[in-house]
Amino acid sequence: MTLALSRFEQEDIAAGVAANLRSDGRLRTDYRPFTVESGIVSNTSGSARVRLGLTDVLVGVKAEIGEPDQAKPTQGRFEVTVDFSSTSASAAAFDDDNTETELASAIARTLKGVDLSALCIVPGEQCWVIYIDALILVAAGNAYDVLSLAVRAALANTRIPKVEVSDDGHGRVELEVSDDPHHVTELDIRAVPVIVTLSKIGAFHIVDATIEEESCAKSRVHVAVDSKGAFCMVTKASAGGIEPQLLFDALESAKQVGQHLLSQLEATLKQEERALAMFPNSQRGFLTDLQSAT
Amino acid sequence: MASEAVAAADSVELAQLQRDAETFKRVHPLEYYRRFLSQQLRPDGRGLERFRDTSLSINPLATAHASALAKIGQTSVLCGIKAELAVPSLQTPGWGFVVTNVTFPPMCSASSRLGPPSEQAQALSRLMHGLVVGKQAASSTATAPSVPAPTTPLKSQSAQAGMAESNPADAGARGIVDLNELCITRGELCWCLYVDAVCLDDAGNSTDAALLAIVGALHALVLPAVTLDAASGKPGFNPSGNSTQLTLPATPFAATFSLFDGNAFTLADPTAEEEAMQSGAVTIVADVSSENPTLWTVHKPGGTPLSATALRQCISQAVERIKTLDALLQAELASQSTAME
Amino acid sequence: MSTGTVSHANGSAYLELAGTRVMAAVYGPRENTRAGGLQQFNEQAVLQCDVARAPFASPRDDARIGTDANTSAAAADRQFATSVATALQSSVRLEKYAKSSIDLFVTIIGDDGGALAASINCCTLALADAGIEMNDMVTAASVALAANTNIVLWDPTHLEESRASAIATQALRVSDNLVTLLDQSGESSLKLSVKALEACSSMSVQLHGLMQQTLVSSLLERRKQQLLP
């Protein structure tokens, strides 16, 4: 996900970062505003689309009954897949297929700490499997962060039908899945973190890098922060090195930015819910811009 | 002074010669070998019938139930055994399972690359599996799980099913392991042994090393005592109970010979270099542990034909070699048990 | 620790830390034969890493991986391999070896915790043994973190790893003090993470010295063998 930048462009960006005034006027730790639309894909259990700058990610969540992980028989489980839309790389060519698996495994790792005992149906035999399918519509920088925001928003939006377990008298269990749209459970997403990616440019680190900034970053660190400010995952995926002291500073700012992002996401979702309650028929989804234009 | 000058001149000449030999070897590898072999010598200094130094160490690993590392010269094969509980298949309620596999990770030689197992690895896996379970699973060897994908006990049932339970008293039907011994409760519970041999360094003759490692690990295997919980019927391990060691009705070893330059020369224990140039090979597996030595397998996968006299000669050499391997195993096991005490 | 363990490889090394045993071999620089490798021209060498786990590598109480978990195990191995490659990438002077690939093959023989760190260290030794130019040796170390007691356990075993609230692995280029890989999974606070990384760094420095000694002694050994006919 890199652009080929000239040396002058790179120097310009680096100078901006050093002066704590980036090319779009932000400070090093400023995040761009993002938009969230949830519940926009009707045949899923939950969905959300998050846009940040030009980057655009759609996440669909589907709950299905399946077998639990043998190591955790009393919990449900997550399955994460990430796909790049074939048009997503409008501005840049992708390195390799590894990016998709890397993104998916990063998301799966951030979800490891989430307690899924509510999703257990019959211990050791049946549970809800939450399939999280993410589609990156436009990748224009900071894909990890946007993806994690979209996953959290989609999980907040997820409704799982209640299941009744009955014994048929022969020792076999029968499951009855409720088809009442109001007879549902919500997921407890308090432990779902967001990823904050920090890019090292020159001797400083910045949050929410644009694709140009990413292209001249020497190394990147992805930090997953939950609402308590604890780290759920720290990984440095790119090749370059980073000084330990800078790393500690980066972790510090990741904590602040992450908590801020989470509260912002919460507020946005609440606002959306309120708006929806007031204007239930308002136009949403992919054709909104088009419809308002005509 | 003069003698020093002569010595210096000698060393220069020696270096020159060495360089020439190196070039000659690269350009005419076969001719290079022929010149050596015609003097009844090999480039690594061995005679034609000599095997390389062989060593065996028992239980070098803590993570497996049993393990053994066999080294023949530089070639090293590590075998690890994991034992799991499984349900016997319907056709053979009195038997356990053994799944044998030999893998050559891409690390072990420059020629093996990523991807599915090579034909060499598959063929060797099948040969080893046949030796470990013998005719007990004769009809199953065709479907023996030679694919290194980890098979679940359920899967391996299907791999070994489809044969009638033969008479276990028939000595000829036996392999190294008596499958009857792996049964805990007839029709209900048995052991499934995963015997995995990993070639760490392939410097030629991995067959002999693999069988040595497998036999060594099987001898070191101690199965924990299993008790059935009366209430739930679920099996559990009983640490205080008597753990069992397999009796192992046989301990065969292998000796491989390489046919070189048509069948002009027969080289014992070929190196990787020799294997690359050989025109054929023959592996002889025999068991000399009992009073009557038995010949198990003569494995000759294609290549130039071998005369009956030459084969007989190979076999007698192999028996000598296998006697030393048997002694090596016994010595290693003895030192192991004294170390335990 | 020892080097030169695989006879045909350009460089190889074996590392043993109690139950954790790792073997690495370097093939290359050689022609890039992987898919697509020949078509494109590379000014730099490509560093490729592949990890194989012996079936008996994990501790004995672990159930054998079923076919279900098989795909996720393969994905985990790929992730593992990428991590090893990223840790080493910045330190190998790839620009010296244009148009070629350097292939690292790691075999995990036994895993009793800290397999990632051990693999990175083993690969560094193997690269050095192969005579491939590097800026410095990368050394890695791992710690287990216990969130409730604020304890950082150095070089944890498998049992300690499974009970810890988080595990962190860090690879450090000691001479210029640059972190080349960082990987923490599980929950921890900022303070604890910093403490963990500091612990990793000091372990790395110790390891760096040890590995240098190993290389020097293996070199001396080899020279001795060459001098003797």
Automatic annotation (TrEMBL), chain A:
Residues 31-161, 192-256 form the Exoribonuclease phosphorolytic domain. This is Ribosomal RNA-processing protein 42. It is found in: Cytoplasm; Nucleus, Nucleolus. It comes from Capsaspora owczarzaki (strain ATCC 30864). It comes from the Eukaryota. One of its GO terms (biological process) is nuclear polyadenylation-dependent rRNA catabolic process. One of its GO terms (cellular component) is nuclear exosome (RNase complex). Transmembrane segments: none annotated. InterPro entries: ExoRNase_PH_dom1, ExoRNase_PH_dom2, ExoRNase_PH_dom2_sf, Exosome_comp_Rrp42_subfam, PNPase/RNase_PH_dom_sf, Ribosomal_Su5_D2-typ_SF. Belongs to the RNase PH family. The lineage of its organism: Eukaryota, Filasterea, Capsaspora. Its main location: cytoplasm. Gene3D superfamilies: GHMP Kinase, N-terminal domain. Pfam families: RNase_PH, RNase_PH_C. The keyword Cytoplasm applies. Keywords: Cytoplasm, Exosome. One of its GO terms (molecular function) is mRNA 3'-UTR AU-rich region binding.
TrEMBL record, chain B:
It is found in: Cytoplasm; Nucleus, Nucleolus. Pfam families: RNase_PH, RNase_PH_C. It comes from the Eukaryota. Transmembrane segments: none annotated. This is Ribosomal RNA-processing protein 43. One of its GO terms (cellular component) is cytoplasmic exosome (RNase complex). Residues 142-170 are annotated as: Disordered. GO terms for biological process: exonucleolytic trimming to generate mature 3'-end of 5.8S rRNA from tricistronic rRNA transcript (SSU-rRNA, 5.8S rRNA, LSU-rRNA); nuclear mRNA surveillance; nuclear polyadenylation-dependent rRNA catabolic process; rRNA catabolic process; TRAMP-dependent tRNA surveillance pathway; U1 snRNA 3'-end processing; U4 snRNA 3'-end processing; U5 snRNA 3'-end processing. The keyword rRNA processing applies. Belongs to the RNase PH family. Keywords: Cytoplasm, Exosome, Nucleus, RNA-binding, rRNA processing. The lineage of its organism: Eukaryota, Filasterea, Capsaspora. The keyword Protein transport does not apply. Residues 51-221, 252-320 form the Exoribonuclease phosphorolytic domain. GO terms for molecular function: mRNA 3'-UTR AU-rich region binding. Gene3D superfamilies: GHMP Kinase, N-terminal domain.
TrEMBL record, chain C:
CDD domains: RNase_PH_MTR3. One of its GO terms (biological process) is rRNA processing. Residues 2-133 form the Exoribonuclease phosphorolytic domain. It holds the Pfam family RNase_PH. Gene3D superfamilies: GHMP Kinase, N-terminal domain. Its main location: cytoplasm. GO terms for molecular function: RNA binding. InterPro entries: ExoRNase_PH_dom1 (IPR001247), ExoRNase_PH_dom2_sf (IPR036345), PNPase/RNase_PH_dom_sf (IPR027408), Ribosomal_Su5_D2-typ_SF (IPR020568), RNase_PH (IPR050080). One of its GO terms (cellular component) is nucleolus. Keywords: Cytoplasm, Exosome, Nucleus, RNA-binding, rRNA processing. It comes from the Eukaryota. PANTHER family: EXOSOME COMPLEX COMPONENT (PTHR11953), EXOSOME COMPLEX COMPONENT MTR3 (PTHR11953:SF2). This is Exoribonuclease phosphorolytic domain-containing protein. It comes from Capsaspora owczarzaki (strain ATCC 30864).
